[in-house]
Amino acid sequence: MLAPVLSPTSPTADSLVTIGRILKPFGVRGEVKVESLSDVPGRFEGLQTVYLTLPHEGATPRATTVTHVRKVTAGYLMKCSSFSTPEEATHFRGAWIQIPVSPELPRDPDTFYHFELIGLRVEDPDGQEMGTVEEILEYPQHHVLVVRNQEAEFLIPANRRTIENVDLDNQCLHVASKEWWDISHAL
């Protein structure tokens, strides 16, 4: 089974980015079918160590060595050192596949990981708190932020016209206009 990540130098859940999810066991050798959640081409190629997080077990990331990965029609097949039979692999159904965030990778300053946006406070142009980003929905044209407060849930298109600024240091997202907010409350 997987060993817990206990080393002080090991990444924490906050420093991991989710790149996939284990769907189900495949075959008799302990491979698992994997759904990619990454938009980075070749993200799964060359993986050596990943962290598996089982949501139903307290969400503690656990390290495992990737033995091999191969691309198939709908996703990937992956084999890890932590499981060698379909029965062992079944235990990891639904596990998130995560890797450490790599700060040295170049990134557009207006691009953010989902985990960086979840939990941010949302403020209108007047500085009034509107709620908290609870979820991110992915659509072909752009992502949509699900923002909740005590009274309502509303959707914010994640584009430059709607979002004025994302301030990760102060855990705040500033929207450019309240027009969509006023319309959503009228519905």
Chain-wise SSE layout:
Layout: E1 3-4, E2 16-26, E3 31-36, E4 49-53, E5 62-72, E6 75-80, H1 86-90, E7 96-100, H2 114-117, E8 121-123, E9 129-138, E10 143-148, E11 153-157, E12 163-167, E13 172-175, H3 179-186
Parallel strand pairs: 8-13
Antiparallel strand pairs: 1-5, 2-3, 2-7, 3-6, 4-5, 4-7, 5-6, 8-9, 9-10, 10-11, 12-13
Question: How many domain modules?
Answer: 2
Question: What share of the residues lie within helices?
Answer: under 10%
For the terminal residues, how far apart are their CA atoms? Answer: 51 Å
Radius of gyration: 19 Å
Question: Strands of the largest sheet, in order across it?
Answer: 2-3-6-5-4-7
| Unreliable stretches covering 5 or more consecutive residues | 1-9
Report the CATH architecture of the largest domain: Beta Barrel
> Tally of extended strands?
13
CATH C-level category of the largest domain: Mainly Beta
Secondary-structure-based class equals mainly beta
Quote the CATH topology of the largest domain: Elongation Factor Tu (Ef-tu), domain 3
Largest sheet: 6 strands, antiparallel, barrel
Count of discrete alpha- or pi-helical segments spanning 4 or more residues: 3
Overall body shape: elongated
Q: Specify the CATH homologous superfamily of the largest domain.
A: RimM
Could you spell the SSE succession in H and E letters?
EEEEEEHEHEEEEEEH
- Indicate the mean pLDDT: 82
Strand content: 35-45%
